[in-house]
Amino acid sequence: MLVLVINSGSSSLKYQVRDVAAGSVLTEGLIEKIGMGNGGDGDGEIEGPRDHAEALEQVGAAIHAELGDLELGAVGHRVVHGGERFAEPVLIDNEITRAIERLNPLAPLHNPANVLGIRAITRKWPDLPQVAVFDTAFHRSLPEHAWRYAVPDELYTNHGIRRYGFHGTSHEYVTHRAAGLLGVPVDEFDGVIAHLGNGASVTAIRGGKSVDTSMGFTPLEGLVMGTRSGDLDPSILVFLGRAGWTPEDIDTMLNRESGLKGLAGNNDMRSVVEASEAGDAKASMALAVTSYRLAKYIGGYHVAVGGAKALVFTAGIGENSYQFRALVADKLGALGIELDAGLNSQRSKEPRVISTPESAIPVLVVPTDEEQAIAEATAAVVHPSTAP
Ligand code: ADP
Fold first, then answer.
1. Is residue 75 domain-shared with residue 215, that is, in the same domain?
2. Domain assignment of residue 117, given as a range
3. Residues 19, 93, 127, 135: which is the catalytic one?
């Protein structure tokens, strides 16, 4: 089945057409500057489409130009927030669309854009089944002691303030592939998955299910990321508020100016590693803070799992930065973890083991592929018998 995978943002729309069975990408693209229709400033910049409907006309034309009359079987949407309701991918109808819209307050930048994408498809291809795949869904298995914040109950009951977790599609996909590589049934997989991209999160997996994860109410909690701070003392925000910072100032500082960027002046891991190797003390400090935070989480999640039997690295940094993996592993000696330096520094796109035979548990690198995961989930909802 051919699935059109849509990742709809407020001003951009990423798409891929996937052949689910072959696992291949037939065509892909990115439409930018949506809603900036009159934004051409005369220096040759292309004007963006007026809205998501117009953006989809461009997608439709591009797909037709590339693939001719090949027929799409379904559309799979990456939806950021599924709240407490959605624990699995669902077939979209009007009621589901409204339910996603009701979650707007929890993901004000993302869910409204996802809904715009869904409605635009409904108008353009009314007969095409659409499936929503939620970034939070895999973490619906978190036990209450892991998802509760220790604040007055009304914050949860009146405002939905609790830990939700994100990157679920990737954590679930990588869990399945890691279990496959180790030859254990997925429902017997106990491990820790570190998804390290521009956004980063780590998840504790017991019996193939998420039992804790480092992102919380929003994707800000947890690890040190490219431009996000991760965990800090919440009183800092009160302090800054009293000093005259607005909520917008604080939001920008924590989400866009912190993390590697705040510590090293650069949000790109490759550049920070290079700077550190060239003797830049701030870059080395940033790597030390970032790897230490992750190592602490891995230690904690080893306990949460009840004894992890594998540690898995994925996403841009996790798959590519052998230097960062080594920095983290160096801090995990107490768990008996030992990397094989040769295997760790080998470049490969394949899932692989990078620890020594003596390591107490295997350390794996497993490339993630969120679009393939969304395509597979979509096909499985539309035609359960085609599930891989
Ligand atoms: P996103 O969360 O945007 O999907 P990615 O998963 O693409 O992000 O990860 C981006 C991060 O991966 C950046 O910090 C980038 O420097 C890092 N990265 C990508 N390729 C390499 C590489 N070859 N070596 C080290 N780091 C890399």
1. no
2. 2-134
3. 135
330 is catalytic: no
Quote the CA–CA distance of 314 and 221 in Å, as a whole number: 19
Q: Which of 92, 110, 134 is the last residue of a domain?
A: 134
Query: Ligand 1 centroid to 226 CA: how many Å?
Result: 9
Residue 153 resides in a domain? no
pLDDT digits (tens, 9 = 90+) for 236-261: 999 999 999 999 999 999 999 999 99
Q: How large is the angle between the packed helices 281-305 and 322-330, nearest 10 degrees?
A: 60
Tokens 């230097």 -> residue: 323
Residue 69: band (very low, low, confident or very high) from pLDDT cuts 50, 70, 90: confident
* CB contact burial 227-241 (16+ within 10 A = b; e otherwise): bbbbeeeeeebeeee
Which of 341, 322, 151 is CA-nearest to residue 234? 151
To test ligand 1's pocket by mutation, which of 198, 260, 294, 370 has the most ligand atoms within 8 angstroms of CB? 198
For ligand 1, is residue 272 a contact (CB within 6 Å)? no
Mean pLDDT for the stretch of residues 349-374: 97
Residue 46: both structure tokens together: 């292309």
What pLDDT shows up at residue 384? 85
- CB 320 less than 6 A from any atom of ligand 1: yes
Residue 376 within a domain: no
329 and 230 belong to one structural domain: yes
One domain for residues 8 and 87: yes
240 domain-assigned: yes
Q: Please work out whether the CB of residue 219 comes within 6 Å of at least one atom of ligand 1.
A: no
Distance 156 CA to ligand 1 centre (A): 35
Q: Does the residue 257 lie in any domain?
A: yes
Report whether pLDDT(44) > 50: no
Is there an atom of ligand 1 within 6 Å of 199 CB? yes
